[in-house]
Backbone:
């Protein structure tokens, strides 16, 4: 099954978050076709999490983007990890969502 472009996926994800009454913003625009997508979750209580693309071995062949938790810590530690990811891949997308419930609104990979 064909996979949606990164640009299309991010646009749809942001729109769905807004429809659900959540604050979600695009912090960095990456490569439109296939840039890796990272999602920072701010729990608004001093905790944050970073989600990134799941390894291909954990992704099903159904065209759905799957993510894995990369780090759960304080917001500064998460921002440091984001900076490292940006040094490694300058074409990545970064979106951020605020959700006290801790739900990043992502399809998570199953081990």
Residues:
């Amino acid at each position: 099954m064909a996979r949606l472009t990164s640009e299309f996926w991010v646009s749809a994800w942001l729109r769905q978050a807004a429809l659900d009454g959540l604050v979600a913003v695009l912090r960095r625009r990456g490569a439109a076709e296939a840039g890796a997508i990272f999602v920072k979750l701010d729990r608004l209580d001093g905790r944050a999490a970073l989600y990134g693309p799941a390894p291909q071995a954990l992704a099903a062949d159904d065209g759905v983007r799957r993510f894995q938790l990369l780090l759960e810590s304080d917001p500064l530690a998460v921002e440091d990890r984001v900076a490292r990811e940006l040094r490694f891949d300058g074409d990545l997308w970064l979106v951020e969502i605020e959700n006290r419930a801790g739900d990043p609104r992502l399809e998570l990979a199953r081990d």
